[in-house]
Predict the 3D structure of the following.
Amino acid sequence: MDNVTFDEFINFVKEYNPDEVERVTKAYDVACRMHEGQYRDSGEPYVTHPLQVAYILAEMEADGDTLCAALLHDALEDTPLIKEDIEILFSPSVANLVDGVTKLARLNFSSKEDQNFANTRKIINSVREDVRIIIIKLADRLHNMRTLGYKSKFKQKENAIETMEIYVPFAYNLGCYQIKRELEDLAFRYLKEDEYKRIFDERAKIVSDNEAMLNQMGEDINKALLAGGIDNRIIARIKNIYGIYSKLEKGYKYSDIHDLLALKIIEGNIKDCYSSLYYIHNRFLPIHDKFRDYIASPKTNKYQSLHTTVLSPFENLVQCQIRTDLMDRIDTYGLPAYWNTDKGYARTRMQEELKRDYQFYTSLKEIDSIFKDNQEFVTQVKEELFTDKVYVSVNGETKELPKGSTGIDLAYKVDPINANRLTNLEVNNELFPRDYVLQNRDRVQIISGDEVTVDESWLEHAHTSHAKELIKLKLKEESN
Ligand code: MN
């Protein structure tokens, strides 16, 4: 990817946020002066890096504070500039962002030192004050991963592992799928070079073999929808390299990956999304057990869409992802879909969205209140927010939980009151005890009796802090 010049960047900013051009230009001038004489491993002047980072953020229409902070994000670490300088030259808000990004770089889940646990807790909790810190850091990591080829083999591996362990989950938790997919592919490329190359080539063949068919299907659907009075635009997409790899690892064949080939069908309103199903299923045979309604029950990172997998005229599986414009923007950018560039309002708006709709925030808050010990806090955050998820269906609704969750966690997620009387689970038509560890695609029925069944042992079998918190409350209530 070619570097953008400052002129290209600032013209882009002018388009969506003209009021901030002056301040952002000033931040660039300061960055140029501070990083003068410093060079990247690629041989380019250092300031090209903060400039590309700021551009990645401008593409998401970031606010002025964020752009200034992005331009200055390495200045505290690598130049004589201090936080107070940024406060005076710009604002306390820009200074806090730069300071936060600088500290976030020290986030480390592996070190076993007490000092580190305390530090990690502080860093993680700073997100609850200003989530833009993570978003800047994601853009920073993305640009570093794009240019990782210039680093030593050792550094490449180290950064790739850290990206998978810390930044991919951050991107997922905030719903930033575009960044997540690119980070995954870049990290995978340095972690498993041969497999990356193999799947890269196989994917290129899939693209050339199926492009025409996908476009034709898209046109058919577009016409049928227009005839039905539904305005729409359709984009074909093929799963990313790491996404394909994960499926192959689980034993799937290419032909069985139900979302390898997909069409994004974007519409004006929610009602049209549901109506579209009629036109699509009328033309293409749906695979019934692949239907998901993430509009009625969004993912925990606010992802929304209807998913239906249908058979193409050549019998390939094609996933149709039906959503509104806003849902599509949230799929692409995640929480950053909500920047509000009105003077100083971006932070408030983002924090409001984060608090209201993102499980990441709620879980962090719960974990923070339950675990006083720093090491326990860090362990729980890692296990709950930085691991893979499992998806199970309960009464036809898809529920997302951290990997390792049991029937107890599920019960408290679905119905906290009745969970106190949980006895068993029926999983795929077989009876299991309540501490059964959930697996992807399980169809679960929660069975509860008339009596309260909660006891101390449930705390050991619960995995999520949400369930643990509610169990503790109930135990307290029972003992009174
Ligand atoms: Mn940087």
Strands lie at 232-238, 261-267, 292-293, 306-311, 317-324, 389-394, 397-402, 422-427, 430-433, 443-448. The CA atoms of residues 246 and 397 lie 24 Å apart.
